[in-house]
Amino acid sequence: LDEVFDKNDLDYIWQEASFLCHPNKLLDQNKTAGALDARTKEPLKKNRGVWLEEVYINRRFSNYFSIYQKPLNENKDILKQYIEYDYNINAYFKTKKDCTLLSYYEDGDEYKKHNDFSSYTYIFWLFKEPKCFTGGNLYFDDIDYTVELKSNRAILFPSWAHHSVTKVSMDAEYSNKGLGRFAFSTFLH
Predict the structure, then answer these.
(1) For the residues 125-139, what does the mean pLDDT come to?
(2) Which of 52, 141, 151, 172 could form a disulfide with 100 if both were Cys (CB 3.0 to 4.6 A apart)?
């Protein structure tokens, strides 16, 4: 989905993303429950993030939580059309719980091939424009398919699908200014 949110909703989400992006608020990859290499047990990702459920005791205080389901609800007819091609998408309509991780990527950050421990993954991307970095695309490893990173774009896919995030490259002058790649990843169960 492109142009997921209108300008007012996008500004509302940016307020929260900018607030949470402070280096003292974001946690390193070891504290955000990312996938580990099966052999070395090292994290497959290099980025910083925060679980929104840990920030907000009550979801109503989160700007993102107050509107994140809007695009999914507005596009239910499109999702239902996909059931004709893949009946498994029908399980999306049976999900009852979710949790959301805000991830932030700057120079050298990436997420190697992994799959998620949920039924479906819904990712919403943001970055300041003009874009101050390269990379950060979503790559589906098993089918050799790249989804280009665009601000205000979202994707929903089965969590079992192996995917990765290509390495972000950014000049040092843009570091620690909130000018990198933001991803709100919602894991639906």
Answers:
(1) 97
(2) 52
